[in-house]
Amino acid sequence: MAKLLYFGRLSDITGAAEESLTLPDSVSTAGELRRFLDLRFDAQGALLEPTVRIAVNNELCFDTATISEADEIAFMPPVGGG
Amino acid sequence: MLKVSEHVIDACALLKGFEADVSGAGAIVSFSGIVRPEASTGSVEHLFLQAYSPMTENGIQAAMDEAKSRWPIENAMVQHRVGEMKAGDTIVFVATASAHRRAAFEAADFLMDYLKTKAVFWKREKTDLGDAWIEPRDADYADAERWR
């Protein structure tokens, strides 16, 4: 199962900061996962915003990146500290 | 010298230690970021900072390395707090040391702009009027653009 992490305001939408998920057969890229989850959580596009970046195993990636069951996949809205 | 932790930041103690470590420097600049008591939507009850290790630390370390390649600084320190904090607490401490002041000022300014807009943190503010996730302001992004 893939480990999914939802940071910042996204955890308010998903209801949890993390979950384990068996990737559906229709999902093999980060972009496909983004679209699948947006529908699953009825997020109304919140997960599709270009400012929400995806990191696979701690590396930012494009939506075309291939993902697998062993991956840790993080959904990251705009960051900022200080 | 980088640390991201839930522990209280004692800026005075950190500065003293930094000064001792860079005893050959001619200029030392330090910056402390403090939790403001007032938010745009009420009085701050607490601020919650979330990080994603090791991505958070890796990114800050890369920014510190970039600062060292852009300015002749002898050393730099970044300490950033995560977890729950209250108004008046120090969120972040940055210090830089160089032979002359300009490099230390600019490197500290550069590091703070990185921390405000690119460092992997998320902030949630709890005020007397409710909770809200805080994202960087346009002014923060404009500040960060200065170093391109």
Topology:
The complex is a heterodimer of chains A (82) and B (148).
Chain A: E1 2-6, H1 10-14, E2 18-21, H2 30-40, E3 53-56, E4 59-61, E5 72-76
Parallel strand pairs in A: 1-5
Antiparallel strand pairs in A: 1-2, 3-4, 3-5
Chain B: E1 2-5, H1 11-21, E2 27-34, E3 38-39, E4 42-51, H2 55-70, E5 73-81, E6 83-85, E7 90-98, H3 101-117, E8 121-127, E9 130-134, H4 138-145
Parallel strand pairs in B: 1-5
Antiparallel strand pairs in B: 2-7, 3-4, 4-6, 4-8, 5-7, 8-9
Per CATH, the superfamily of chain A is Beta-grasp domain
**Roughly what fraction of the amino acids of chain A lie in strands?**
25-35%
Biggest interface found? A-B, 15 and 27 residues
User: What's the Cα radius of gyration of chain B?
Assistant: 16 Å
- The global form of chain A is globular
Mean pLDDT of chain A: 97
Q: Beta-strand level of the residues of chain B, as a percent range?
A: 35-45%
Order of helices and strands of chain A: EHEHEEE
| Broad structural category of chain B | alpha+beta
CATH architecture of chain A: Roll
The portion of residues assigned to helices of chain B is 25-40%
Count of helical regions of chain B: 4
Q: Would you report the number of β strands of chain A?
A: 5
